[in-house]
Write a structure and sequence with these properties.
Layout: H1 20-51, H2 54-72, H3 74-93, H4 100-159, H5 164-249
Helix pairs in contact: 1-2, 1-3, 4-5
Length: about 270
């Protein structure tokens, strides 16, 4: 499966500000800037008063120097950046899944829900197709029965020997049954056209459902692979740390630089 730029697998490759925690960080920075500006306005009278007093002025200058050191020192800025990103990631993780594997699991869960809804709709659509087919069969039988009655009435009139009243009744029955049969045949034409369109839609949904099920299975396999890889890496890292700690506890042995026995020493 190809990985697109919007794929959850590439979330870790995005810049911090492009990820969800970066959005939360922007909001926090804006709110923090507003708070700092409001606080500065509130303490501005104190700063003006402090500048008129020598001791307060010295403390103020010292505070400014400390602030400039914090802002200009690269290590302090890096530490502050890491702390800020960690806090924003924690806050964002309270209501948004940030783990790529967790994101994929949520996506798979949504796909399964959609597949369940599609299966239900397919069942309803199939039921509608069967209902239409039953109605078409019923109409066809009724139309054939009406046409048969019309033919019987026509034969009765052709045989002759009928009174004027009987002749009129048979003619009326013939016309009525012919019209009823023709009406049912026309209705069936519309119902058959609708049934055929629903069958095409049903077949298309079946193919889409099969494709979606394949994608779900493929993503589940990817998640299982990533989970096994993560467990293996964690295990290897823990073994490495244990070995590193064990080696650091061992006393260092100084190599014996003395010449071999039998060789005279200088």
């Amino acid at each position: 499966m190809a990985t697109t730029p919007s794929s959850p697998i590439l979330q870790g490759l995005k810049n911090f500000w492009q990820r969800p925690e970066g959005t939360v960080g922007k909001v926090v920075l804006v709110l923090g800037g507003i708070a700092v500006a409001y606080g500065f306005v509130q303490i501005l009278p104190f700063l003006i008063a402090a500048a008129t007093d020598t001791l307060h002025l010295a403390l103020l200058i010292g505070g400014i120097l400390v602030f400039l050191f914090i802002v200009t020192d690269k290590r302090v800025r890096t530490l502050g950046k890491l702390i800020f990103q960690s806090v924003m990631r924690f806050l964002t993780g309270l209501f948004i899944e940030l783990d790529p594997i967790g994101i994929l699991k949520n996506y798979i869960g949504e796909m399964k829900k959609n597949l369940a809804i599609m299966d239900e709709q397919l069942g309803n659509l199939n039921g509608s197709i069967r209902t239409l087919q039953n109605q078409i069969d019923t109409n066809q039988k009724d139309a054939e029965h009406s046409m048969a009655l019309a033919n019987q009435a026509d034969k009765k009139m052709a045989a002759g020997g009928l009174t004027s009243l009987d002749q009129q009744q048979y003619l009326s029955a013939k016309v009525t049954n012919q019209r009823h049969g023709a009406s049912l045949i026309n209705i069936n034409k519309s119902l058959i056209d609708l049934r055929d369109k629903l069958k095409i839609l049903y077949d298309q949904l079946i193919r889409w459902g099969a494709t979606a099920e394949f994608q779900v299975t493929d993503k589940e396999n990817r998640v299982s692979e990533e989970e096994m890889r993560r467990k293996a890496l964690k295990k290897a890292y823990s073994v490495f740390q244990a070995a590193k700690k064990d080696l650091s506890r061992r006393p260092r042995c100084q190599p014996d630089l003395r010449p071999d026995v039998g060789i005279p020493r200088r």
